[in-house]
Specification:
- Keywords: Membrane, Signal, Transmembrane, Transmembrane helix.
- This is TPM domain-containing protein.
- By secondary structure, the protein is of the alpha/beta class.
- It has a domain of 141 residues: Diaminopimelate Epimerase, Chain A, domain 1.
- It has 8 helices and 8 strands.
- Strands 1-2-3-4-8-7-5-6 form an 8-stranded mixed beta sheet, with helices on both faces.
- Helix 2 packs parallel to helix 6 and helix 5 packs antiparallel against helix 6.
- The N and C termini lie far apart (70 Å).
Length: 268
Amino acid sequence: MTKTKNSLYLFFLLAVSLLWTPIVGAATPTVNDEAGLFTSDQIATLNQQAQEINEKIKGQVFIVTTDSNSEEPRDFADNYLRNAIGNDQNGSVLLLDMGQREIYISTSGNMIDYLTDRRIDSTLDDVYDEMTNANYFAAAQAYLTKASGYVDEGVPGGHYRVDEATGKITRYKVLTTIEIVIALVLAAVLGIAFYVINVSRYQLKSGTYKYPFREKASIKLTDKTDRLTNSFVTTRRIPKAPPPGSGGGGSTTHSSGGGTFGGGGRSF
């Protein structure tokens, strides 16, 4: 009986190890250079630069190059990011599509808020300049450098998301360090002031005094009739949502495969 149990236990461990191996090996590399644009040393440098961003955003950023993609660049980038980290997780990917001559940045999770439309446009400016000069490594570095800088700056004040399909605007409230400190100081001052005023007013010990509400309470009921005399209808114009890529403090989003993505692209 013991020998049978030991055999079953060993079989179970073997099965788990076989199932686990492909899962570990399936991790998406930070740099997927299908088009062969980078040297091994350049890929190592990009990996290190990306890892610093990953630690800040608690997510992952990627770079993928291809010369055989037949999908729309946006669809390809969204699918790549979703397959790498899942829907609505923190991350972004830079696609360098050499076949369609297209640059595209797809964002997900908190990177949608860090990389607003305006920031993506600025990043694409730098990447485009390097791509048109065939400086592919510099283009990838420009993407990572810009992304890292924007993460350090934080989500811009007054930030919002705009759904490109419905026009729905979702506001994002950011508390700065100064605002947090001011709020804590005011709360402390008001709390102390409330305590001091009440103690000085009553000078009572807790639990020794009870208000004689039965003797001092009184109630008087009267008839009251409410009558509607006028009614008004107020109308206002709802402003049109900004178009995709219009910049400002917002991020234009779209749905793909059950997830929400931001991003933008440019031909080169």
